[in-house]
Amino acid sequence: MLLATVVLSIFPLYYMIVVATREQGATSSVPPPLIPGSSLGDNVGRLLSNENAAFMTGMVNSAIISLTLTVSVVFLSTLAGFAFAKLRFRGRNALMLSILVTMMVPAQLGVVPLYMMMAKLQWANHLPSVIVPFLVNGFGVFMMRQYVSQSVPDELIEAARVDGCNTFRIYWSVVLPALRPAIAVLALFTFMAQWNEFFWASLAMGDPSNPTVQISLQHLSTGYYNDYAQVFAGTLLSILPLLAAFIVFGRQIIGGIMEGALKA
């Protein structure tokens, strides 16, 4: 059963690699090819020269958006999580409740007013329209609040204050190092979500010459004739940053997930 599950999970990825390395028309061959070919270079060359897709522009835009939002969400979420978990200030519970409420409202309900705001600021079709509204999110703040509450004892905070640390120094030197497993998990989730984001990006980045990578892939598959070898080559290139992120930070991510499961 486990082997069948593994095969069913891996086969779509493997077949994508097969088609990406084959010539045009491989998907309509009978029987379908199951062994990678030697046409990956030609398919990638046609992909990069396809002016309608603007694939490299999409890759660069998605990298800028994903990295910027990952850094922003992690920094602001850890800062807010520390404040909600360890600092005492008036209205703390009400403010935390309002953040939780934002997680219960479907994002689609805010699309129209958000787009009107972006148009009024003249940010439509520009990167700020897909970066600024998502610099922080309720999930990250809630996750970090829970992790700080369980991982950083109050005695450690008090000891740092006795030693003369101010609030930001406590956050930077005491709290932040203790959050590394949770930071790795939140960073990966945020990077993946923003790299794969399509709905809002397709509305806010409507200019075909300035797409994200997901919009570039959509342009490849819309037309009277679909070159699936080119589409799958683009898909293969688009997942490489995600694989690289998981390989580089895999140990911290798995450690963070396991630690969170044990504490739960």
UniProtKB/TrEMBL annotation:
It is found in: Cell membrane. It holds the Pfam family BPD_transp_1. CDD domains: TM_PBP2. It is a multi-pass membrane protein. Keywords: Cell membrane, Membrane, Transmembrane, Transmembrane helix, Transport. PANTHER family: ABC TRANSPORTER PERMEASE PROTEIN MG189-RELATED, ABC TRANSPORTER PERMEASE PROTEIN MG189-RELATED-RELATED. Gene3D superfamilies: MetI-like (1.10.3720.10). Residues 59-249 form the ABC transmembrane type-1 domain. The chain crosses the membrane at residues 63-85, 97-118, 130-148, 169-193, 228-249. Its main location: membrane. This is Carbohydrate ABC transporter permease. Belongs to the binding-protein-dependent transport system permease family. It comes from Hamadaea flava. The keyword Secreted does not apply.
